[in-house]
């Protein structure tokens, strides 16, 4: 059948339109792919061709309040291998094994893995000398990636607070763990391109994505005070060989922790060399034990606030014991202290006197103040592993439990709880949350990302009650059981503590935790220091004998380091037969040698200079020295 020309033309026209439509759709698709999907497809292709050599970020530094570095980083290169680029695996394995001190078999196994890139375990965080040796091998397919490892410049210093970071620079303990997210930063990389055979594509430029370094962490810690604390704990460790020691120094007016240390300690860079129970337990915030007589400050504060006692007018007779609920609770002084004012009860740390204060308060009021001062709950300090202690349930508190709680027995508290509570007792009555991290800082531009402010939890007692407590505790140091914490020129207040340790439901013999908590200046407290020594050997286990002098040394040197001026209006120390008399240094500038000969001083003179007249003296006039101490005089002719 013959088809007409018209039909043919129609079919050709239809075919042409279909062809045009098909080509139009293809053009649209090509345009869409080219202009809209082009970058995405190119990036996807590059991802298939790409190989990454990671660049680790610098972990943020940890510094003290004055910018002194406490945890930093040191460069530590890491070896990477791209197996498909290795031309001669056997030869490469032999050379690499020789430099990294590993077996050839292990090296060969690693560099022949069916992976795009392999991190060599024995080549992680190596020295720059080792990295230089590996580069000198000039083995194609072996790369050196930039990495770093954590460095603690002062070794064991502040170890439990700082904690440590692992091989991957991840925080594992202490501040390193608590602020890990802020410290760790974000990884970067150098990206190069390889074909399906793993051969490097030299016509494509490498891509470099810089790492983002972590934030720097500034602490409330003052390294000057921390150094003093570490020194005194080392001395005590050598002298008493205790089972442990704890020390905390804090600003009572805002909760800033100025120093924190304990023994046994460890080197954060070598934490694997000590048992986990040493580095896992930050004793100042974790350990929980009976506080002993330091807890009497809380009972005293409650009794004063409730108007249950007048320290000067009220008297108490102590026969050496008190009968409560069929139990005989004894005073530490055999035979008792006899008749005494309540100020002397505090000075003598008389247990029966504090039992009486507990009775006057009643158990509801006593335990209300104990909880108001923060006991029985965590303080909220920004460190991992804080304990909360143990208190009696109020419905289970009988007369005996009420009595023992009043003088610090039968309850369990943490050191940081005691420091926070006593700070509230002497700062005017405000309980603060202790904290140790002050600021997070962007190292790139110095911008402060986070700034922590003091957090006042609640008002516990009035300023007037706090004033009375400070006066009473200053008299404890000058005239009572805390004399060995006395610091000439500074008004120091404080309280001793001696608590028996318990095991298997009974108290241990000759095994005590002895403690002292002090503050200064007593008229305007700037520093609270707590020290507890666990089972000191070779000494009488009393807080006033062991812990008080440690606090005295820490307090005196720390106040001077803080720039706190001495005060002359301190309560005069009551001397015992063991104390050397103190002599006030007179002003000797301008005196001649003849004048000095007529001036009776029980002080040794170290003279220098060739003249006849004193032109300079050390120490300055007004300073008190122990009898027999040496003063230096400089002579010249006027």
From TrEMBL:
One GO cellular component, as annotated: plasma membrane
Q: Which SUPFAM superfamilies is this protein grouped with? A: beta-lactamase/transpeptidase-like (SSF56601), Penicillin binding protein dimerisation domain (SSF56519), Penicillin-binding protein 2x (pbp-2x), c-terminal domain (SSF54184)
Using the record's annotation, list all stretches that form the PASTA domain.
579-637
Which sequence ranges are marked TM in the entry?
12-32
Output one GO MF annotation: penicillin binding
Amino-acid biosynthesis as UniProt keyword? no
Q: Which GO terms describe its biological process?
A: cell wall organization
> Gene3D superfamilies this protein is in?
3.30.450.330, DD-peptidase/beta-lactamase superfamily, Penicillin-binding protein 2a (Domain 2)
- Keyword Transmembrane applies: yes
Quote the subcellular location field of this record: Membrane
Main site of residence? Answer: membrane
In terms of Pfam families, this protein maps to: PASTA, PBP_dimer, Transpeptidase
Its keywords, alphabetically, are:
Membrane, Transmembrane, Transmembrane helix
User: PANTHER family, per this entry?
Assistant: PEPTIDOGLYCAN D,D-TRANSPEPTIDASE, PEPTIDOGLYCAN D,D-TRANSPEPTIDASE FTSI
UniProt xrefs under NCBIfam families = spoVD_pbp (TIGR02214)
Protein family per UniProt: Belongs to the transpeptidase family.
What is this protein called in UniProt?
A: Stage V sporulation protein D
Upper taxonomic lineage: Bacteria, Bacillati, Bacillota, Bacilli, Bacillales
């Amino acid at each position: 059948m013959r088809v007409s020309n018209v039909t043919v033309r129609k079919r050709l026209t239809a075919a042409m339109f279909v062809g045009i439509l098909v080509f139009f759709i293809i053009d649209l698709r090509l345009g869409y792919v080219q202009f809209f999907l082009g970058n995405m497809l190119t990036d996807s292709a590059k991802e298939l061709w790409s190989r990454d050599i990671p660049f680790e970020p610098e972990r943020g530094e940890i510094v003290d309040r004055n910018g002194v570095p406490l945890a930093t980083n040191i460069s530590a290169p890491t070896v990477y291998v791209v197996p498909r680029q290795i031309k001669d695996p056997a030869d490469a394995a032999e050379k690499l094994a020789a430099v990294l001190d590993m077996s050839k078999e292990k090296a060969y196994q690693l560099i022949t893995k069916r992976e795009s890139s392999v991190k060599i375990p024995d080549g992680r965080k190596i020295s720059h000398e080792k990295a230089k040796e590996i580069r000198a091998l000039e083995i194609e397919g072996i790369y050196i990636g930039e990495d770093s490892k954590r460095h603690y410049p002062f070794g064991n210093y502040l170890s439990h607070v700082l904690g440590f970071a692992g091989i991957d620079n991840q925080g594992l303990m202490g501040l390193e763990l608590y602020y890990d997210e802020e410290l760790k930063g974000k990884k970067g990389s150098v990206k190069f391109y390889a074909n399906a055979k793993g051969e490097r594509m030299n016509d494509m430029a490498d891509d470099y994505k810089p790492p983002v370094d972590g934030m720097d962490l500034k602490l409330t810690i003052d390294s000057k005070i921390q150094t003093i604390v570490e020194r005194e704990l080392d001395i005590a460790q050598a002298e008493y060989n205790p089972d442990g020691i704890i020390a905390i120094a804090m600003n009572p007016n805002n909760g800033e922790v100025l120093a924190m240390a304990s023994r046994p300690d460890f080197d954060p860079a070598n934490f694997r060399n000590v048992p986990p129970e040493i580095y896992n337990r930050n004793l100042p915030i974790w350990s929980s034990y009976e506080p002993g007589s330091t807890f009497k400050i809380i009972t005293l504060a409650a009794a004063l606030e409730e108007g249950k006692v007048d320290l000067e007018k009220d008297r108490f007779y102590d026969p050496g014991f008190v009968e409560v609920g069929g139990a005989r609770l004894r005073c530490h002084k055999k035979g008792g202290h006899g008749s005494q004012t309540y100020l002397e009860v505090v000075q003598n740390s008389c247990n029966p006197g504090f039992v009486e204060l507990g009775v006057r308060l009643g158990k509801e009021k006593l335990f209300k103040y104990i909880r108001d001062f923060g006991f029985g709950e965590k303080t909220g300090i920004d460190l991992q592993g804080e304990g909360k202690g143990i208190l009696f349930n109020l419905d289970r508190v009988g007369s005996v439990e009420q009595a023992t709680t009043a003088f610090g027995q039968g309850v369990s508290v943490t050191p940081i709880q005691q420091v926070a509570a006593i700070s509230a007792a002497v700062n005017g009555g405000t309980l603060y949350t202790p904290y140790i991290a002050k600021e997070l800082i962007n190292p790139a531009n110095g911008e402060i990302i986070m700034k922590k402010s003091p957090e006042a939890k609640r008002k516990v007692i009035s300023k007037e009650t706090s004033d009375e407590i400070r006066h009473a505790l200053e008299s404890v140091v000058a005239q009572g059981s805390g004399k060995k914490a006395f610091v000439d020129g500074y008004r120091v207040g404080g309280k001793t503590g001696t608590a028996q340790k318990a095991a298997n439901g009974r108290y241990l013999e000759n095994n005590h935790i002895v403690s002292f908590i002090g503050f200064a200046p007593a008229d305007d407290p700037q520093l609270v220091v707590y020290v507890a020594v666990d089972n000191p050997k070779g000494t009488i286990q009393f807080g006033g004998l062991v812990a008080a002098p440690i606090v005295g040394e820490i307090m005196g040197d720390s106040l001077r380091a803080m720039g706190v001026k001495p005060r002359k209006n301190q309560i005069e120390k009551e001397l015992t037969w063991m104390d050397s008399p103190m002599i006030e240094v007179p002003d000797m500038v301008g005196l001649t040698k003849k004048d000095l000969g007529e001036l009776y001083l029980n002080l040794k003179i170290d003279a220098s200079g060739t003249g006849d007249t004193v032109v300079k003296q050390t120490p300055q006039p007004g300073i008190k020295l122990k009898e027999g101490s040496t003063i230096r005089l400089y002579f010249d002719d006027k």
